[in-house]
Design a protein that fits this description.
With 364 residues, chain A is mostly helical. Chain A is built from 15 helices and no strands. Chain A has one domain: ABC transporter involved in vitamin B12 uptake, BtuC, CATH 1.10.3470. Chain A starts with a helix and ends with a helix. In chain B, strand 11 and strand 12 form a beta hairpin. The chains are: A mainly alpha (364), B alpha/beta (366), C alpha/beta (388).
């Protein structure tokens, strides 16, 4: 109430000045440039730090030789190129994809708390991975890593299909969120049911997988990951305009020419491709999808999709690379699971965000 | 019809395949302001949502500038029709400029980047609604009234030929109501933009609209100019008013009169009686009024609020019949209030009546 | 724009699906089809077959020798490994599924803990540089000392090895247990950085000597075949002396209690029941099979009680669950133990944690069992302890 009175008073102030849209945009542009520059610098810095850090110490000049001149001892070349580089690249690419997945879901549900794992996508992936793991190990005694990747991907898509089916019937966003959470619970229950019948040894590593890890990434992983996520990134960027219209609500978006039905499907599909790919290669990683878009939007001071989408992708890459570095080195040679680290950073951010939002809603 | 711009042909609207209102046949010309009025839940919003294609219509056709809207894509429609809705939205971190700028959506390229021209149009639209100073503010930080103006600016920025508004004045105080309607009036007459809206404030609807559509039950009960529609009986039937009156002459709304045999007699003329009537009404004291010429302004109100009114033909001397009736009624009342009468050559008799009341000890002069 | 957008999205989705399917088809399966049974030496173009290793008890592998010092190790129902002598080349048209191991094999990463004792027994401990257990986890004294001296270092669990360390130490071979199949991405990664992976399947042998005979395989890898054969023959002699024991008819229940309250026993064809049989005892389950071919069989306490309550001896598997140190501990696991004959007669024993790791002392273990079954007051048992 007090705020409203202030507004009305300021309208009558003779000294209050109006800023033209062009000037406002110019002013904001410099802020955006700062943020992007900061992100780019952070990206470079954290990449260098990551390449330089590992259980085996390789001095900087030899690293540069390996990277740019491709000369060096076979052992060191292997360490940099086969162990560190794929891992760093995957952390960046998957981190970016995961945060965009969160951004798209937050747009869809018009709620900043929505995230890929809130909707049970990781539970679906875990369920199918558990099923396939147990079946393959019992029948064939072995399981290939690509089978696990495909299993996780299919599991994620199955959960997504359920959400889409439910979304056809339920229009209320809050109810849809609840439905998503319930689907997550159902998948978890099914997984526990399957585990009960399995031998301990069969599912020994299921828990480890479900905490997420960027270790053991190969260049073929990087290849597929970057193609899929790259394509999805481009498509998401092309959706900037309808997303901008959708920020005013479905009715206004439609009045501006957006085909709402196709748009909503596209949002969910793209979001799932992102989170399914990440889950497939690295397992479920929590909080990135919620924390990063929030941080980026507040740093930029705007939620215009044309700016936010690239910044969120970069921000996600930086966030995951930092968390991966900590996971690797904090208690070396023991490696923490990536979800542990992202939760330690991500959860306080989400809590702060909820309080901040409550306070803002109370004032508005 | 050659100059019909927006036509509804046998339109039926409703939800889930069931028609709420059927057989709507309306012809709207370019630059007209058309207002839907009707009781709550009658279906005004349903009709508006159907013509903007937010809701699937049940049957019939909507013709926009000669084209069937069913054959138009959402994109084509968006260059012609803009909306202002009742939906509350909470976009985050967007300024008022940003909100208005989304109106340029149908005109920008693939990524929605605004040209200098677009940015200028945003400023112009804000100027049209007197909200230039709000441009740089966060949208969520402005008041409801300001938000409504921003949304209207957004619609203006879309450069439509027709604007559809659903109860645009709902959250506004009197000043902003007037402002908004004035803007709409200006848009319609200067830029020839057609306005279709729904209003609860029938007094405002009467004053601003070119045409009125009455929605009740399962049909359009009335369609025509305000002069035709705004009769006391039409409005009374439309809203089923049994607890008050609507005066179409001034577009005013009155609460019901105090019932019973009159206890007070009010003598007044030229507007002096009005505040007395209202006070008596609030105190729930039934009263009578007179002697009022039927062209007197007090008469307009007294005929609603008083139990009995003694009248006289305009510009005539007060006749015996009127005087006698007055005295008779005064006899039953306990008090006579003399609110002030402009005594001229033809109504001297009122003074006599006042004197008589004084003699009986009932007079009170204000 | 709507129609075009939709088309683009459909194409993208289809492309993604196609990519996934193609990689899926090429990646499925995993295990190569090795020659099952191993009766015929496989043809390798460029190599001439010379002889087959003679095996007395081992049934899960075969070694075929080829002229020029080449050897093909065929682990049944798993992979074939071609061992290439120093300085020699890999045959030109070698089957892609055969894993190449180049001699000399040095700086081994040992993640199959049961093979450590074998390496030690043939004097090949110096070939091992990295393991997945810390010093405190070893019950092979020589290994423990080597770790404490820093000659062998810890390189991370099998499911999360320190790849950089493996490369830094110039690891020449990773020996993994079958658990590596639960982390296929780790196996792929190790192979990706140029280190061949050998999967040990010795625990699938039904006879304890068969399990020990794997030392001959590891002898081929480390050029210690003579030492390996010598050690194995010694153990064989010890065991064969024991084979002439008359069966005492006494029954033994060998098990542990899992965290979810089940009794986990061995299938009747496992090497531990076989050891008990050789030692002159009878394993309580004469015909128990795990439907999945695994050696451990979990069963509910009720069923276990039903079948094993009259066992003469209880021997608790302390190598998996080391929390049971007294009869009270056993009864604390489940009240029903109080009703067992062996508990009532105070005939409860526990094996040390070394049972799993000490694959080299088969004979001594069997001797211990034998003493347990035959002596009135068994004491001086090296690897079995009484529960008080």
């Amino acid at each position: 109430m007090a705020e409203n009175k202030e507004n009305r008073l300021s309208e009558n102030e003779i000294t209050a000045d109006a800023i033209s849209y062009r000037n406002e945009n110019l002013r904001r542009r410099s802020r955006y440039i700062c943020v992007f520059a900061a992100l780019a610098l952070a990206l470079i810095f954290i990449t260098v730090l990551n390449i330089n850090t590992g259980n085996v110490h390789i001095p900087l000049h030899r690293i540069l030789n390996i990277l740019f001149l491709k000369t060096g001892s076979a052992k060191e070349i292997n360490i940099i190129w086969r162990i560190r580089m794929p891992r760093i690249l995957m952390a960046a690419i998957l981190g970016g994809g995961l945060s965009l997945s969160g951004f798209l879901l937050q747009t869809f549900f018009e709620n900043p708390i929505a995230g890929p794992y809130v909707l049970g996508i990781s539970s679906g992936a875990k369920m199918i991975v558990a099923l396939v793991m147990i079946y393959m190990l019992q029948q064939m005694k072995t399981i290939s890593s690509y089978t696990m990747i495909i299993a996780a991907f299919i599991g994620s898509l199955i959960s997504t299909a359920f959400i889409l089916l439910v979304a056809k019937r339920i229009k209320n966003m809050a109810a849809l969120l609840v439905a998503g959470i319930m689907i997550g619970y159902i998948c978890s229950a099914v997984t526990d049911f399957i585990i009960t019948f399995a031998d301990d040894s069969d599912i020994a590593n299921l828990h480890g997988w479900s905490q997420g890890s960027f270790a053991s990434m190969s260049w073929s992983n990087v290849g597929i990951g970057s193609v899929v996520i790259g394509a999805a990134l481009v498509l998401t960027f092309l959706l900037s305009k309808p997303i901008g219209a959708y920020q005013l609500g479905e009715a206004y978006a439609q009045s501006m020419g957006v085909n709402i039905r196709i748009f909503r499907i596209a949002l969910i599909l793209l979001s799932s491709i992102f989170s399914a790919t990440v889950t497939a290669f690295a397992g479920p990683i929590s909080f990135v999808g919620i924390a990063v878009p929030f941080l980026v939007k507040n740093a930029l001071g705007t939620s215009r999709p044309l700016i936010v989408i690239p910044a969120t992708f970069m921000g996600g890459g930086v966030f995951c690379m930092v968390c991966d570095l900590i996971a690797r080195m904090a208690f070396a040679p023991i490696e923490l699971n990536i979800s542990t680290v992202t939760s330690i950073f991500g959860a306080p951010i989400v809590i702060y965000m909820m309080i901040h939002r409550q306070r803002r809603n109370a004032n508005a | 019809m050659p100059d019909s711009y927006f036509e509804l042909k046998n339109l039926s609207v409703g939800y889930n395949g069931e028609a709420l209102i059927s057989d709507i046949c309306i012809d709207i010309k370019k630059g007209e302001i058309v207002t839907l009025i009707g009781p709550n839940g009658a279906g005004k919003s349903t009709i508006l949502k159907s013509i903007t294609r937010q809701l699937n219509k049940i049957g019939g056709k909507v013709i926009l500038d000669g084209r069937d809207m069913d054959c138009m894509s959402f994109r084509q429609i968006s260059t012609e029709m803009a909306v202002v809705l009742t939906e509350r939205m909470k976009p985050e971190l967007l300024t008022c400029h940003d909100i208005v700028a989304t109106g340029r959506y149908p005109y920008t390229g693939k990524l929605g980047v605004l040209s200098h021209e677009d940015e200028d149009k945003v400023d112009q639209a804000l100027r049209a609604v007197n909200a230039e100073k709000l441009g740089g503010r966060d949208f969520n930080a402005v008041s409801d009234g300001q938000k409504q103006r921003i949304l209207l600016a957004r619609a203006i920025c879309q450069e439509p030929e027709i604007i559809v508004l659903d109860e645009p004045t709902s959250f506004l105080d009197i000043r902003h109501k007037l402002e908004l309607l004035a803007i709409l009036r200006r848009m319609a007459s200067e830029s020839r933009i057609t306005v279709v809206m729904s209003l609860h404030e029938i007094d405002l609807a009467q004053k601003i609209s070119d045409k009125i559509i009455c929605v009740k039950g399962d049909r359009i009960t009335n369609y025509g100019s305000p002069e035709k529609i705004f009769t006391e009986d039409t409005i009374k039937d439309l809203y089923e008013i049994d607890n008050g009156y609507f005066d179409p002459l001034f577009g005013s709304i009155e609460l019901p009169r105090p019932e019973g045999s009159p206890q007070v007699f009010v003598i007044s003329s030229g507007g002096t009686g009005i505040r007395v009537y209202r006070k008596l009404q609030k105190d729930n004291i039934p009263f009578a009024a007179g002697i009022l010429y039927t062209n007197d302004i007090d008469y307009q109100l007294a005929r609603h609020l008083a139990m009995d009114v003694v009248t006289e033909k305009p510009f005539s001397e007060i006749g015996d019949a009127a005087a006698e009736r007055t005295l008779k009624i005064m006899g039953m009342c306990r008090e006579v209030i003399y609110a002030g009468v402009e005594i001229g050559s033809i109504n001297r008799r009122i003074e006599d009546i006042a004197a008589e009341a004084e003699r009986r000890g009932k007079l009170r002069r204000l | 724009m709507n129609v075009r957008n939709r088309a683009v999205k459909i194409i993208a989705a289809v492309a993604a699906a196609v990519i996934i399917c193609v990689t899926g088809l090429t990646g499925c399966g995993g295990a190569s089809t090795a020659a099952a049974g191993g009766s015929d030496a496989p043809d390798i173009s460029g190599l001439t077959y010379s002889s087959t290793m003679k095996l007395d008890y081992a049934k899960c592998f075969d070694v075929y020798y080829y002229k020029g010092g080449y050897a093909l190790i065929d682990v049944h129902n798993d992979t074939e490994y071609l061992v290439i002598p120093k300085g020699k080349k890999k045959p030109a048209k070698l089957d892609k599924d055969i894993v190449v191991i180049k001699k000399p094999v040095k700086n081994i990463y040992l993640a199959a803990t049961s093979t450590m004792a074998l390496f030690n027994s043939m004097g090949a401990l110096d070939r091992i540089r990295l393991t997945e257990l810390k010093a405190s986890g070893w019950f092979v004294p020589a290994a423990k000392k080597a770790m404490q001296d820093g000659r062998i270092i810890y390189a991370g669990k099998y499911s999360a090895p320190d790849y950089e360390k493996l490369l830094d130490e110039k690891c020449g071979l990773a020996i993994e247990s079958t658990m590596i199949y639960h982390s296929p991405d780790v196996k792929d990664m190790i192979e990706d950085i140029g280190i061949p992976v050998f999967v040990d399947r010795s625990s699938y042998e039904t006879h304890p000597l068969g399990r020990a005979e794997w030392i001959k395989l590891y002898g081929v890898l480390t050029d210690r075949e003579d030492a390996a054969v010598k050690f194995f023959d010694k153990q064989k002699k010890v065991v064969e002396k024991l084979k002439n024991f008359k069966n005492t008819g006494k029954t033994v229940a060998f098990f542990y209690v899992s965290t979810d309250g089940k009794a986990v026993v061995r299938s009747s064809s496992d090497y531990i029941p076989t050891m008990i049989k050789i030692a002159g005892g009878k394993y309580i389950f004469s015909d128990l099979k795990n439907k999945n071919g695994k050696t451990s069989v979990p069963m509910s306490m009720e069923k276990f009680y039903d079948e094993a309550k009259n066992a003469d001896y209880i021997v608790y598997n302390g190598s998996i669950d080391s929390t049971v140190r007294s009869v009270a501990d056993l009864k604390a696991k489940d009240d029903i133990f109080a009703g067992f004959k062996a508990v009532k007669n105070n005939n409860c024993w526990v094996t040390g944690s070394s049972l799993y790791q000490r694959t080299d002392i088969v004979g001594s273990l069997i001797q211990d069992f034998h003493n347990l079954l035959t002596e009135k007051n068994p004491h001086n048992l090296k690897y079995i302890r009484k529960l008080e």
